[in-house]
Amino acid sequence: MGALDANYRWLDDGGPAFGGPGVQPRWTSSRKDTVSTAYSASSRIWFTASHGTLNEIYYPTIDRPQTRDMELLITDEQTFFHEEKRDFQYDFHYIDDQALAVRVVATDPTGRYKVTKEFITDPHHSVVLMNVKISGDEEILSRLKCYALLAPHLDGGGAHNSARSLEVAGRRCLLAWKNQISLAFGVDCGFIRSSCGYVGTSDGYQDLSKHMHMDWNFGQALDGNIAVMGEIDVAKTREFTVAIGLGYGHHSALSNMMQTLSTPYDVHLERFIDQWQRAVSPPLLAAGSTDNGKLMRVSQSMILVHEDKAYAGAFIASASIPWGASKSDDDLGGYHLVWTRDMVQSATALLACGRAETALRALVYLACTQHPDGGFAQNFWIDGTPYWSGIQLDEVAFPIMLAWRLWKADGLGNFDIVSFVANASSFLVRYAPLTQQERWEENAGYSPSTLAAVISALVCAADLCRAHAVPDLGSFLEEYADWIEAHLDEWTTTRRGVLLPEVPYHYMRIRPPAAGEPFHNPDIPPGMIHLANRGPGEKFAYEAREIVDAGFLELVRYGIRRADDPLIIDSLKVVDSVLKRDTPFGPCWRRYNHDGYGQRKDGGPYIGWGQGRAWPILTGERAHYELAAGRDVKPFITAMEGFSSFGGMLPEQVWDYDDLPSRGMYFGRSAGSAQPLVWAHAEYIKLLRSVVDGQVYDRISVVADRYAVPKHQRTFKSRLEIFQLARPISAIMLGSTLRIMDAQPFRIVYTLDNWATKTEIDATSVGRLGAFVDIATTAPQDPGADGNNQKIIFTLHWPAADRWLGRNCEVMLSEQPMPQTIAADKPLS
């Protein structure tokens, strides 16, 4: 308690609650009906809603949940007790098409009374408001008792919360706190009684469900998993407004709440809607929809609402905790974190809506978050603090692509992006073509989707460098991209596929690193990958050729491959045979076969294992491919609209099997993971823009012009082979150029004739990207000579440290192209 405690009129009532610290805390449902906040940046509070009730409230930033939920409990003290989220049927609406003001109309099971609630935030203060109107049979209403029950999860968790009842300005209210965060809970008419209790033992729900009336009136519950409850006198007040104010310290929270309640609710509502009118969605995109733009309007708002207000430009993945009702305080992050992949998708979608300023904020934020080595954390809190630490190359590539798009849209303003892009590019060059994790965040190796992003980013970076007077760096990056693209199919496909016998040659989900390559795991047999999230007793080790996803479609999206490429077409046949699910709303696809990240087979929540379900975002990705192929995509748009909830929320996953009503699982409807997934909303927005434009919005012209042409029409031919100590190669074809690279300046000593002669060369510096030496090779002049016996032998010296490598490296020269190796073997080049 703070130094100002003596300044408050605490209400001891029935004394301290019993049963502390309460049951183990849990979060709540991740299937949100909406996420909302005021459009004004001065109101730094967000709320979520599901099952007709208020869920997590985020404050003072969108990555910090402060409550579990809040709902009404209603009883006549004799014949019934109703809990909103379990007992009511409800309708959900937005009060205005362009604003995230919510109206929920709920009725009791027999239709005797109706509860109409509206949710908004104060447009200028950190307060959530719930306006309530109760109507119905007067005989019932005269006997009703109504209680507002709130479960604080302050400072990101349910444990160690405390609360007391108090009186402020003649009104009874409740105050909760943990560490530096305080929460004030009150109503404009004042609670007539209140109680603080421990969840599962002495909370208000336990009281009413046992006694059908409020028997407990505890004045405090300290240091536990708590819930607070206040009674509203509905016999006198059929309309009232509940306020939840948050602040740093008691005085801030109480002042926020009281300031907000001093203004009539209708005034707040009008201001809230007026603010959101500034963010009107682009009407042009509605023409691409099949629902008259309904989901488009919600999707743009969902992306906007997930931007933080203290850290401008920071977009989180979702204001939800997947399977939250089964998660404790241990799951601190949920999806309310920044992933640069998701965030760039959001920014690009807003750019597609004509909001270049918002996209620029995102890019500037990313520049401020970039690590000194040019990379980014796998995900992070919005203040930049890393959460997970994996290396995902696509998450470094996507910001470069966003920078290029903004440059082409003349949306950079005064922001100089060259250093930012060069730093990110240096990270890619240091690690590519192998990534520690691909976009599903589970496996290391050569990933088609990751390499699609890397190639595209390097070509974008090259284009930017040339335009900003750094032509040598631009050429270097472009050549590196060309090298990856030249080996792409060799590294990421199998010719011995087993999933569809008539298609043995297709893309794999990922090719694992072999011995001697970065991120190799010696505990996994060669050519195998271990799948995460598999259940007890389930097989988890598979050959790489046995696992597929549709990530290779990114190659078409950005312009690296043509839609009519035979390998793309054949790979889709395999994907459709094992991953496609035809739902009542249209087709949807699972991430990859044997995926365990999803609702369990019995409909229960994911608990570290489960069954990966169909992802609506993958319907959007397939639609983009079909558009590139010149086919009608309206069925895919209709499907995505069908997957959305009545609040317009697109889920991460949908239940893709027969209905299981006992588990709340319905075919084609949200499963229990994250809802909304902002990435899915971004994908839908970009799909509409693509339809309106008549071409894929994400297509990068400089990439497509270089690669998405018939091979015989290309204006270049990559003859480069790259050797790095972290990824040494063993052979190249005669006529190629061997490029030896290192992060530090070096000198090379090499021979082509087994040291009969030698050559010494100082490496050429490319700044932060390191240094390199090129050794050109030619076919033997003597037709009778055996070119296959030739090899390059070399060693390295680093002058700054006066250090030698201490061994020789050898690269064989072959007159024939290098054969494709199986996934169990290391690529030759």
Principal-axes geometry comes out as: elongated
> What percent of residues adopt helix (DSSP H or I)?
25-40%
The largest β sheet comes out as: 10 strands, antiparallel
- Count up the helices: 19
Question: How large a portion of the residues is in β-strands, by DSSP E?
Answer: 15-25%
First-residue to last-residue Cα separation: 66 Å
Whole-number mean pLDDT: 95
Could you state the oligomeric state of the chains shown?
single chain
Low-confidence stretches: 781-785
Rg for CA atoms? 30 Å
* Secondary structure category: alpha+beta
Number of strands: 37
Q: Could you walk me through the main structural features you see in this protein, from its secondary elements to its overall organization?
A:
It is a single chain. This protein is elongated. Helix 8 runs parallel beside helix 10, helix 8 runs parallel beside helix 18 and helix 10 crosses helix 12. It is an alpha+beta fold and 829 residues long. The strands form nine sheets. Strands 1, 7, 8, 9, 10, 12, 13, 14, 16 and 18 form a ten-stranded antiparallel sheet that branches. Strands 29, 31, 32, 35, 36 and 37 form a six-stranded mixed sheet that branches. The longest helix has 22 residues, at 471-492. Residues 781-785 have low confidence and may be disordered.
